[in-house]
Amino acid sequence: MRIFLSILSLLMCFGLTPAHAERPLRVVATLSTFADLVKIIGGDYVEVSYIASPKFNPHFIEPKPSDVMKVKKADLFVHAGLDLEVWRDPLLSAAGNLKVMSGAEGELDLSRGIRLLEVPAQMPSRAEGDIHIYGNPHYWLSPENGKQMAKTIAEKLSVINPDHSDIYQQNLNDFLKRLDQMIADWKKQAEIIRGREAVAYHNEWVYLADFLGIGVSHFLEPNPGIPPTPKHIKGIEQYMLGKGIKAIVLTTFEPARAAEAVASRTNTSVLPLCQNVGEIPETGDYIAMMEYNIHQLTKGLQT
Ligand SMILES: [Zn+2]
């Protein structure tokens, strides 16, 4: 025992500590979905938490003092970029952690490398309440983008913690292999609904719709983040009836009553989907969430 302790203190003198004594990287993600992907790639070398409960609209979270403390102590802050988290900059300012501020090594914007959709030719004004002014920020809902996000995370973890880059690369390869197998299955599953169309409460399904070859281009919200008006709803109902649309897709935190009223007047159904990991028990990880959403759409849009 005495010999062991002597060796240990000698190692510590030289700044060398046994592998099990290493502190995991403290990662704070804005969304549960990003936290899940970081854990998949980082494994035991990361300690991950997230700010926004998947049961609330991620655009409009109010971070708590405990969230500020988490960011203050973080080695890495992972977020969606664009204007998804309208609460992100105030949170970073309140935390004052220079390691994770915009442009610092400990900041990771997951929109990097993503082919963004609905990027406006001209910057619209926020006066109309639009919260998608840089393009549609809900890109994580396509599994093809999940691959890019996992690669971006592996690269960043390898920069911050190069000693374990082999492990991150291995975890990435395993995840991409699993996801590619699922993508092939999902594409096959969705053939039956190719070309079909749904209406949504909020404009958050464009990436998944693009992946599946379906249309989701009309919304109960007149602009992203703006509640429905009677005039707008009337126009949507006419559109649905004219096109023979069968379903209105809705997350758990969006107002079911508004969607159900439209569904009953147009003789359609409300189709629940999830926007983030953990929103319901069936969506416990990224692949399970994709599986759930694609299964729901495939079932709900068949004639
Ligand atoms: Zn949105």
Structural notes for this entry:
- It is a single chain.
- The chain has two domains: 19-182, Nitrogenase molybdenum iron protein domain (Rossmann fold, 3-Layer(aba) Sandwich); 189-300, 3-Layer(aba) Sandwich (Rossmann fold).
- It is 43% helix and 13% strand.
- The chain is built from ten helices and eight strands.
- The strands form two sheets. The chain has a four-stranded parallel β-sheet, with helices on both faces.
- The protein binds zinc ion.
- Residues 59, 131-132, 138, 202, 204, 224 line the site of zinc ion.
Summarize the structure.
With 303 residues, the protein is of the alpha/beta class. The chain contains ten helices and eight strands.
In CATH terms, the superfamily of the largest domain is Nitrogenase molybdenum iron protein domain
**What share of residues are in beta strands?**
5-15%
**What is the CATH top level name of the largest domain?**
Alpha Beta
Count of discrete domains: 2
The CA-CA distance between the termini, in Å, is: 73 Å
What class would the helix/strand composition place it in?
alpha/beta
* Largest beta-sheet characterization: 4 strands, parallel
The helical percent reads: 40-55%
So how many helices? 10
Oligomer: single chain
CATH-defined topology of the largest domain: Rossmann fold
Bound molecules: zinc ion
What's the β-strand tally? 8
SSE order in H/E notation? Answer: HEHEHEHEHHEHEHEHEH
Give the overall average pLDDT. 92
Secondary-structure arrangement, i.e. CATH architecture of the largest domain: 3-Layer(aba) Sandwich
Low-pLDDT stretches:
1-19
Instruction: Sum up the overall morphology in one term.
Output: globular
